[in-house]
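ok posting inputs for the zinc ion job
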Amino acid sequence: MRYSEMFLPTTKEIPSDAEIVSHQLMLRAGMIRKLAGGIYTYLPLGYRVIKKVENIVREEMNRAGAQELFMPAVQPAELWMESGRWNMYGKELLRVKDRHNRDYCIGPTHEEVITALVRDEIQTYRQLPMNLYQIQTKFRDEIRPRFGVMRSREFGMKDAYSFDADEAGAEKSYRKMFDAYIRIFRRCGLHFRPVEADSGNIGGSFSHEFMVTAESGEDAMVHCTSCDYAANLEKAEVSRPEGKADQAVDFSPIEEVHTPDIRTIEEVCAFLDVKPGDIVKTMIFVGDGKPVAVLVRGDEDVNETKLRNYLGCDSLELAMDDTILEVTGSPRGFAGPIGIKSVIIADYSLIGMGNFVVGANRENYHIKNCNIGRDFEIRNYADLRIVKEGDLCPRCGKELKIARGIEVGHVFKLGMKYSKSMNATFLDSDGKEKYMIMGCYGIGIGRTAAACIEQSRDGDGIIWPMPIAPFQVIITPVNINDENLARVAEELYKGFVEEGVEVILDDRNERAGVKFKDADLIGIPIRITVGAKSLAEGKVEVRSRKSGEVEKVSLETVRDFITKTIMEQLSIS
Ligand SMILES: [Zn+2]
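and the output
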């Protein structure tokens, strides 16, 4: 490609509406342009990166035995009614009507379409397992699209769906995809971590998110400082502390204190001169219509996902004022465990606590020196809180740390959720009709490219890893009007093209400084500078975008030197 002919509109200005660096750089490097909120066009440079990511994904999916197909973006409402998601999905589902007034949606995902297809075509266990994938455009009507292609409404995604005859097969399919994802993100040159994610009522560690580590990441991930345990914040567990739940403490006499209009933890701390760790919060939740009181130490917060899983309920919400009044006998802000009319469960953080402060279930009153066993009973202790840095690892007991990340992929065991609701059955070897066991596996294509930029960049622009760089090499003659320089650059360019190197020749009539700036901005891994001084010695300068190191290489050896460097950087480390 010749730069002078390429549609590559770079800009110096930082776009004012781009909050994160990857969005800014993708705009500045001429990779994307916005059409409407959360809807983007990929320009030629950006699309080259997308194709690179797609090809790596495709190669690894094929290697893992998955087969590529292509499903429609427009999906009939009937399928979504079968699965029950037409009503459940909410406003993110973009619904449209055709000329006959029939309902359709623009697919945000394809479980319904693939399940209907496989249900109709697969009859016996002999046709299983089956893993089908596509790389396709999705639409989710995000309420607040932002961060460019990182959180857009229209986006490219690889989605795979596995169908198995039994649990053991489903686990094998899951593991295959997990391993394929490790290879994919490694090949993309990313630093990432697979983290355990919540799998709802399926149980076990059957959901992992692949998180690219980046300080700008939207998601928090918890990881152990000693073993390889890692989970997202929603799923992250803590170990049960040692010691018995009701160990003996010296009970101080219970005391009711007048705390006029003191409701929050901060207010209670200031008023009673105690620390948040001396307080026990009583949170009233309603799970599937039944109230439950959840106790957690004042400096901790309840993790609603863990609580929902613990209770095994479908719906869970914080109680409204009337329920609080009914259960505690007092308005919001003074709930406590003593005399409460609901089941009480407690987070592990209460283990070992004594003489703590609680609400009095009476307006404007709190209780000091409350104690478990003497003053109230707890039904059960469980891990119910949001993990914080310094909490202890559920596997090895060492400290946990929290880092930021960007989710680029997700592997998920669906079980029989869709095969049951959509009646996808097969005839097993024992002659019985059974439901297929499914898994689904997604990768955000544009998001992977954007995450790479978040992770790999500097003040001058993007630093593409070789495997997904839009071009591998840029040739920069410092002065295109110097015939000798132009000729050498042209010869080099033709030689690389012949050899299959992805090369762009900056043949623009611009100052060298402008060309260098653009080369750095668009992040090409290797720049070959053709200048008069080096050329007098029969050499060109080869510069690494990543390290900034410059090496003078003779014209005779530069082709071998470059192809070797590229090969090295393409292989999986
Ligand atoms: Zn650990």
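notes: The chain has a mean pLDDT of 95. The chain has three domains: 11-206+407-453, 255-382, 471-570.
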